[in-house]
Design a protein that fits this description.
By secondary structure, this protein is α/β, with parallel strands linked by helices. The chain folds into 2 domains: 3-12 and 258-382, Aspartate Aminotransferase, domain 1 (Alpha-Beta Complex); 18-254, Type I PLP-dependent aspartate aminotransferase-like (Major domain) (Aspartate Aminotransferase, domain 2). The chain contains 13 helices and 15 strands. It has a 7-stranded mixed sheet, sandwiched between helices. Helix 2 packs across helix 9, helix 3 (64-75) packs parallel to helix 4 and helix 5 packs parallel to helix 6. The chain is globular and about 65 Å long. The two termini are 30 Å apart. The protein binds pyridoxal-5'-phosphate (PLP). Pyridoxal-5'-phosphate (PLP) binds at residues 11-12, 63-65, 90, 134, 136, 138, 163, 165-166, 186.
Length: 383
């Protein structure tokens, strides 16, 4: 198997367009020069549209977790309480980060289940400096109700810190309208740039919360990012080749337009769900209210009776398609198909076709075709 032919259908990193790869092979430039500043401003301008925000935008040389840590590390200290919402792996990560900088008041529910807004409000009533939410919990394929939780955060005066790592650039995120003080995204997900950068928006209120913090992180000091950002620079030497790639990837986003991009993501995920249903597979998320939804960028399915999700992943890999298994205690119990970035209908159809073969060979289904047919019927509106 020629690995260069492998189709990545995992929830990041995602395939990167050849023009993005070409952009990264340009000669290095001075990161304190005019050329870099123009590129920085260009990226921030497109990102403002992706984030739907007028807040400051920063680009960090570090993956999504770096931006999560910058958000917490700068705004939370000592006895500050953070309500952390956990229904999957990345909610847990926010909790672990918050515990390093302040005190956590966690709301932990079974992974893959939807939150009860009443329970969240009770936590906020106990007093909180900030609340963290993972918009799209990639580990379980659920989209959490950011808008509603934003309203609760505002009502109780808590900073709203949103992980939009697998929504921004592929799904609707209304940073300003939803009252998000800090939103973060990684480069290797819906924006379809290579891994290694993270982008974040930071509100005035979030900056005010940093004013009395004399123990700001050093490398991830957002005040330093603001000072340099005002000069269209980063405080330390940025990963210049990744910036070249990001700029090109953002131009692809702009050329497609966010509305079309969001529609393509939603339709792609709907096609995978339709195929799952047609093949008799059960979706993993347990949606208990009208505010939580299946993810528009990653679909998590329960492993069929008697088959490990890891075996499905292995069989798919042998056929040239990389999908994801379950994380932590969900390893073997679920498998996940990512459909984020520049993924096209043909990629989804091929993935479903191969999945049908894998499932037939494992004795899960007896005939081929139902999954592809169901997915095709959803995808036929897209070109
Ligand atoms: N948050 C979410 C929702 C994610 O899906 C991921 C990565 O998969 C992260 C955070 C962590 O991002 P990174 O691996 O870029 O540090």
């Amino acid at each position: 198997m020629d690995l260069e032919d492998t189709l990545l259908m995992m929830p990041g990193p995602v395939p990167v367009a050849p023009r993005v790869l070409r952009a990264m092979s340009k000669p290095m430039i001075n990161h304190r020069g005019a050329e870099f500043s123009a590129m920085y401003d260009d990226c921030c301008e497109i990102l403002a549209d992706v984030f739907q925000t007028k807040n400051d935008i920063f680009i960090i040389s570090g993956s999504g977790t770096a931006a999560m840590e910058a958000a917490i590390g700068c705004t939370v200290k000592n006895d500050d309480v953070v309500v952390t919402l956990e229904n999957g792996k990345f909610g847990e990560r926010f909790k672990d980060i918050a515990a390093r900088y302040g005190k956590v008041n966690p709301l932990e529910i079974e992974w893959g289940h939807s939150f009860d807004l009443g329970e969240i409000e009770k936590k906020l009533e106990e007093g909180a400096k900030a609340i963290t939410l993972v918009h799209n919990e990639t580990s379980v394929g659920i989209q959490n109700p950011a808008e509603q939780i934003g309203k609760l955060a505002k009502k109780h005066g808590a900073l709203f810190i949103l992980d939009g790592v697998t929504t921004l650039g592929g799904d609707t995120v209304k940073t300003d309208e939803w009252g998000v003080d800090i939103a973060v995204v990684g480069s290797q997900k819906c924006i379809a740039a290579p891994p290694g950068l993270s982008m974040m928006s930071v509100s005035k209120r979030a900056f005010e919360a940093m004013d009395d913090n004399d123990k700001l992180p050093y490398y991830l000091d957002l005040k330093a990012y603001k000072k340099s950002g005002d000069k269209s620079q980063t405080p330390y030497t940025p990963a210049v080749p990744l910036f070249f790639g990001l700029q090109e990837a953002l131009h692809i986003v702009k050329e497609e337009g966010m509305d079309a991009r969001i529609n393509r993501h939603a339709t792609g995920a709907a096609a995978i769900r339709a195929a799952a249903k047609a093949m008799g597979l059960e979706l993993f998320p347990q949606l208990n209210d009208e505010y939580s939804h299946y993810s528009n960028t990653v679909t998590a399915m329960k492993a069929p009776e008697g088959v490990s999700g890891n075996d499905i992943k292995k069989d798919m890999m042998a056929r040239g398609i990389t999908i994801a298994g379950g994380q932590s205690h969900l390893s073997g119990k679920i498998f996940r198909i990512g459909s984020m970035g520049n993924v096209q209908p043909k990629d989804i159809l091929l993935t479903i076709q191969e999945l049908e073969i894998v499932l037939k060979n494992r004795g899960v289904i007896s005939e081929l075709g139902a999954g592809v047919e169901a997915a095709s019927n959803v995808l036929d509106t897209l070109i």
